[in-house]
């Protein structure tokens, strides 16, 4: 049996995530997930890819909003659930542009000081709909400030297999999934075309291409070579390294740790990198 074993949300894009036992699934992903984002002076999103120190900004949920703590000096600030500003502007996430709402100049100053660069925090209101990539998803699917899709799923067995190949085991937070599951074979998420969790239909639309962000230790912001060095040996296809499956969904509801995952349809075999037998032989 496949079963949800962990749920993660990342309220502010590229900052630390939060493990939750239960999450509301909204029209654009898990509630609060990547609804906030830091942007530079050109209104482009900021990421750990270029600013590894963003890993040192940890988030937590509070009654008032999102509590952000900067680890080096242990100072904190609370981001209100609703912005204090009404100013809207165009922002860029990769090749996408969409409208976003500024949050607070005071909060902008706090982040700029901690990261030592000029930045502003923006929020995606409910009336802003950012479509997913139409090459892989049906019309009407939307997402928040995620790279491209509402959710990412990874099997615990996949990480266990990867760690068996590494000199030092890595935690799941290197890969920033939303849903982690137990049961099944390593990399079984590759095959998920149509699944159902607690009555909600989800569709695996594209394997997740991984970048240098996976090489950043989320506790100290130090960069290394793993896991990309090892993943490139067996998860490389068309010059991209894949780990995890991107999901879109139809309907809304509640997801909880312990929910059963029913696989209703699988992708064709040529999509796979390795078979279960290959995993077992390593």
From TrEMBL:
InterPro entries in alphabetical order: MoCF_Sase_C, MOCOS_middle, Pyrv_Knase-like_insert_dom_sf
PROSITE patterns: MOSC
Ranges of residues in domain MOSC: 126-264
GO molecular function annotation: catalytic activity; molybdenum ion binding; pyridoxal phosphate binding
Top-rank taxon: Bacteria
Protein name: MOSC domain-containing protein
């Amino acid at each position: 049996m496949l079963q949800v074993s962990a749920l993660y949300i990342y309220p502010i894009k590229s900052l630390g995530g939060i493990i939750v036992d239960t999450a509301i699934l909204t029209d654009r992903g898990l509630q609060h997930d990547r609804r906030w984002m830091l942007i530079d002076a050109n209104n482009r999103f900021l990421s750990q890819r270029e600013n590894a120190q963003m890993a040192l900004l940890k988030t937590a949920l509070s009654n008032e909003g999102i509590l952000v703590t900067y680890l080096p000096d242990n100072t904190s600030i609370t981001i209100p659930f609703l912005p204090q500003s009404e100013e809207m502007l165009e922002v860029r996430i990769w090749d996408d542009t969409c409208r976003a709402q500024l949050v607070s100049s005071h909060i902008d100053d706090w982040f700029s000081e901690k990261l030592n660069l000029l930045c502003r925090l923006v929020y995606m209101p409910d009336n802003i709909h950012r479509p997913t990539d139409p090459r892989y998803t049906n019309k009407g699917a939307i997402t928040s400030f995620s790279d491209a899709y509402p959710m990412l799923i990874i099997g615990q067995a996949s990480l266990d297999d990867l760690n068996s190949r590494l000199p030092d085991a890595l935690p799941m937070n290197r890969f920033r999934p939303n849903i982690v599951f137990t049961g099944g074979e390593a990399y079984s998420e590759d095959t998920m075309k149509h699944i159902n969790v607690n009555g909600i239909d989800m569709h695996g639309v594209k394997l997740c291409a991984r970048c240098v962000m996976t090489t950043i230790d989320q506790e100290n912001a130090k960069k290394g070579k793993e896991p990309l060095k090892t993943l490139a040996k067996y998860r490389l296809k068309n010059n991209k390294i894949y780990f995890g499956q991107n999901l879109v969904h139809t309907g809304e509801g509640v997801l909880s740790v312990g929910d059963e995952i029913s696989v209703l349809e699988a992708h064709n075999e040529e999509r796979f990198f390795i078979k279960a037998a290959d995993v077992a032989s390593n």
